[in-house]
Amino acid sequence: MKLTALSLLMLVSTLCCTLVQAAPSSGDVPYYGEKFHHDLASGISNDDLKKNIQFVLRSFHLRVNGSYDQIVNGCSGDNCYQHVSLGYDGARTFLLGSFYLVDEGHGDYAVKDVYCDSIRGSDDFRGGNAPAPGRIPDGNIVNTEHTWPQSRFSGRHNKNMQKADMHHLYPTDNEMNSIRGNNPFGEVVQDRKILKCKVSRFGRASQGGADVFMPPANHRGNVARALFYFSVRYDLPIDSRQEATLRKWAKEDPLDDEEISRNDAIHKMQGNRNPFIDFPGLEDSISDF
Questions:
Q1: Which PANTHER family does this one have (predicted)?
Q2: What pLDDT does 17 receive?
Q3: What are the start-end ranges of the E strands in 33-154?
Q4: Which residues make Cβ contacts (< 8 Å) with residue 142, sequence separation at least 6?
Q5: Which pLDDT score is estimated for 143?
Q6: According to the model, what pLDDT value does residue 21 have?
Q7: Torsion angle of alpha carbons 192, 194, 200, 203, nearest 10°?
Q8: Do residues 103 and 109 lie in contact, with contact meaning Cβ atoms separated by under 8 Å?
Q9: How many angstroms separate the most distant Cα atoms in the chain?
Q10: Segment 249-270, tens digit of pLDDT
Q11: Angle between the 257-270 and 217-233 helix axes, to the nearest 10 degrees?
Q12: Residue 189, SS3?
């Protein structure tokens, strides 16, 4: 069969489109694009892996039905999206007024507190702004924790974007939030003070050095994966002592259904995902954060 130049061009175009729009393999996450999954399977690591993650997180995405996202420098239309900020109030409204909101029935609502591992209901607010759909509750009772402290944000990236990035925001008891402050996370061997919530600790670290904050066991892996994400997304280093602890916590407290659902929900609202949730153990391919 003799092909004309036009028919040959159409054939090549069809083959290219077929390759680009290949259906994701089982377990693949379309958000990251086909190349990212191929590179992971090929053993990409360290700085090369960080750069690939950054490219995916910072680029425009073109959603392709039944296929991988196309990662592009720019696009338009309903299927085009990228990481956007809801603003700090918008982020808090979604997390505290929706995702972590607990319906207790009879018109009463509560909100989860991850540092005390408890549910804070309307009785805890005593006339203050109690939890409710679409509402930011009284911050003197339950505040929003920046797992990566604001005082340690990157100067190279938009600080409002960092402040409102929901991948590191969690509802916490206000007093516990203040005690944690901008102290690093670590394993406490000697308490400096007795905390109101016994599931968390603050004091001398097992590795020595500065005092550290130790959250409940069921939140330690969440902290680790949030900080791994933030470090790569915003080009921020994690000190070696804290990094060693975070790696340990990521193994001891693996993913649960809530963390997976949270990642999906933030993707819908904010337009990006945490790869350290989507690919458990991904931190093992990065030797130094």
A1: ENDONUCLEASE-1
A2: 43
A3: 60-62, 70-72, 80-81, 101-105, 108-113, 118-121, 142-146
A4: 96, 111, 113, 120, 131, 171, 172, 173, 174
A5: 97
A6: 59
A7: 0
A8: yes
A9: 84
A10: 999 999 999 999 999 999 999 9
A11: 30
A12: strand
Residue ranges of the chain with per-residue pLDDT less than 70:
1-22, 25-26
Other C-beta atoms within 10 Å of 2: how many?
A: 4
Q: ∠183-186-188 over CA atoms, to 5°? A: 105
Inter-residue contact 221 to 253 (CB < 8 Å): yes
Contact 109, 134 (CB under 8 A): no
- Nearest Cα neighbor of 237 from 52, 50, 83 is 50
d(C-alpha 129, C-alpha 137), whole Å: 5
Q: Phi and psi for 214 in degrees, rounded to 5?
A: -120, 105
- Contact (CB, 8 A) for 262 and 95: no
Give the residues across from 104 on adjacent strands: none
pTM of the full predicted structure? 0.90
Cβ(228)–Cβ(283) below 8 Å: yes
What the block records as the tokens of 170 is 């969690």
d(CA 185, CA 164): 21
